[in-house]
Design a protein that fits this description.
Layout: E1 2-8, H1 11-18, H2 23-33, E2 37-43, E3 50-55, H3 59-72, E4 76-82, H4 87-97, H5 103-116
Antiparallel strand pairs: 1-3, 1-4, 2-3
């Protein structure tokens, strides 16, 4: 499973960078210790300080990865984004769409119910 890790560095991590500490090697070591393979890493400007692309065997290992990265203390505000295989979810969504009513039906039913009880229900306002 492919993941992208987004994070921000706390102040002590910047001190390590300024002291010529090889943070990239340290991060790779943490990720590889939980069975991940790092395919790319970059320090960035903007909303996140670091972006890491990695591959993990499965979702449980992805959780281990997130815990290990958080425990390292080197990245805060951690976001782990998983790549999804969309064929199975889309097939399920199409199947479910065939048996559910449309949002227009929901609004009509809600409006009638609200009118009957003289309610101004927020769910009815579009």
């Amino acid at each position: 499973m492919k993941v992208t890790i987004l994070g921000n560095c706390p102040p002590h991590a910047y001190k390590g960078l300024m002291q010529s500490s090889d943070r990239e090697a340290a991060i790779k070591a943490v990720l590889e210790s939980v069975g991940s393979k790092v395919s790319g890493m970059m320090f960035t400007r903007g909303a996140y300080d670091i972006v890491i692309n990695a591959e993990v065997p499965d979702q449980a290992d992805g959780m281990d990865l997130a815990l290990a990265v958080r425990a390292s203390g080197w990245i805060k505000d951690l976001v782990v984004v998983e790549e999804l295989e969309m064929n199975a979810p889309l097939a399920a969504a199409k199947k479910a769409a065939g048996v559910t009513s449309s949002p227009d039906d929901w609004r009509t039913g809600c409006t009638l119910k609200a009118a009957r009880f003289r309610l101004n229900a927020p769910c009815c306002q579009v």
